[in-house]
Structure formats: C-alpha cells, structure tokens
C-alpha cells in the first residue's frame, strides 16, 4: 500500500535520519539552513525508494515539495511558546498529505462513517474525554475541597495534569474492555493506587484523599459502564 510505504518513509526521514544538530541548525537559521534542503531531499528519495515505481515519481515529488512548504511554515512562524503546537501541526499536515495521496489512489474511503459500530465506539471514546471530566466535576462539586487544600494540590502538580490523567485512564480502561482484557482494568486501578494515593496518605490530607478517591472511582466507573454498554 502507498500509505504504509509513505508513512514508513516519513518516520525514517523525520525522526531516524534527522540528527538533533540538523533540527537545531534549522531552528536557528530557518530557511537559510542547508540541512532543511538535505532533509527534504532525504524525504523525497526515501519516498521514491519505498514506492519503487517509476510511474509514481510524481508522488515522491509531491511529498518532497509539500514537506518543504510545511517545514518552512513551521520554521517561519514557531517560537518558544508555540514550538510544541507547531510540532503537532507539522506532523498532522504531513500525514494529511500522505492520506490525500492514498485517497487519490482509492486505498481509503469514507465508508467507515456509515459503520454503526464504528460510530458507537467513536462517540463513546469522545464522551470519555472532556465531557466525562465535566460530568465528574459537577458530581463532585458538593465535595470540592476548601481553597487552601485545592491550591496546595494544584501547586504541587503539573498544570491540568489531573484532567489529562483522567482522560487517559478512561480511554485505556475503555480499550481494555473492548478487547476483553479486564485484567488491564485491575492493573490500572492498582497502578494509580500506588502512585496517587500513597502520596496523598503521606500528606495526611484526609478530605483531599477522599475527594480524589471518589473522583477516581467515578472516572473508572464511567469508563467501565461505557465499555459495557458498547459491548
């Protein structure tokens, strides 16, 4: 398949065959960096080598030109604050180009949108992200710790870490249930108990510990219930 070959070429060119020194030089000199052009040339050659079809020469050329345009945009507009954001935008655009080529050759289609099972799983996974976080926050609103305890918890942890931990744990639990590996759910509960509740216990914050415990159980419960409903 063209898609898998181009993705392989992309991973090799963007991560394996691009030294950190090249990345640093590109970020410093931007479009004047010779390594930008070496990088684009490597992507073009890798695409042609993996496709290995003279009739698909234009595909390798499109990959190379689009890669230059996307990388040039990233280098021109990113700064220290937006570097992380531009990394993901850059990778997304590269993958979209490869997907566009694959759609042109009819390797993929949008028929999966009409698949009821796919839609159910997608909606369930979407619900377990931010919507579930909002539900849990509202359910816990009457037990929210006093501001001093909550501020202490927030200052001792990463920004929004709890929110993203909750989303990831719910999606993992949901996945374990879909693939009939309930032992994975037990592993998740045990792992979080070790790393989370031991710290809270040492801090001797009983109310805060109970608050986090209820939130965790609600989080796992929503994921388990959603998984069972989809099954």
Automatic annotation (TrEMBL):
Keywords assigned: Membrane, Transmembrane, Transmembrane helix
Keyword Transmembrane helix: yes
Top-level taxon: Bacteria
InterPro entries to which the protein is assigned, alphabetical: Phage_phiKZ_Orf197
Keyword Transit peptide annotated: no
Transmembrane segments: 35-52, 87-105, 117-140, 171-191, 211-230
Signal peptide boundaries: none
Protein name: DUF3307 domain-containing protein
Source species of the chain: Chryseobacterium daecheongense
């Amino acid at each position: 398949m063209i898609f898998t070959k181009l993705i392989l070429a992309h991973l090799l060119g963007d991560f394996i065959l691009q030294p950190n020194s090249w990345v640093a030089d590109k970020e410093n000199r931007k479009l004047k960096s010779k390594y930008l052009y070496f990088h684009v040339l490597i992507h073009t050659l890798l695409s042609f080598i993996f496709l290995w079809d003279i009739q698909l020469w234009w595909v390798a050329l499109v990959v190379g030109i689009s890669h230059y345009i996307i990388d040039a945009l990233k280098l021109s507009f990113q700064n220290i604050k937006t570097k992380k954001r531009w990394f993901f935008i850059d990778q997304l655009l590269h993958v979209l180009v490869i997907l566009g080529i694959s759609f042109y050759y009819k390797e993929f289609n949008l028929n999966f949108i009409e698949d009821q099972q796919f839609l159910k799983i997608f909606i369930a996974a979407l619900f377990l992200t931010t919507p579930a976080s909002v539900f849990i926050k509202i359910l816990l609103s009457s037990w929210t710790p006093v501001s001093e305890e909550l501020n202490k918890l927030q200052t001792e942890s990463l920004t929004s870490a709890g929110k993203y931990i909750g989303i990831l744990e719910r999606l993992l639990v949901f996945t374990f249930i879909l693939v009939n590996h309930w032992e994975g759910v037990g592993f998740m509960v045990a792992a979080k108990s070790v790393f989370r509740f031991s710290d809270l216990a040492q801090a001797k914050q009983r109310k805060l510990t109970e608050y986090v415990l209820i939130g965790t159980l609600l989080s796992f419960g929503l994921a388990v219930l959603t998984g069972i409903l989809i099954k």
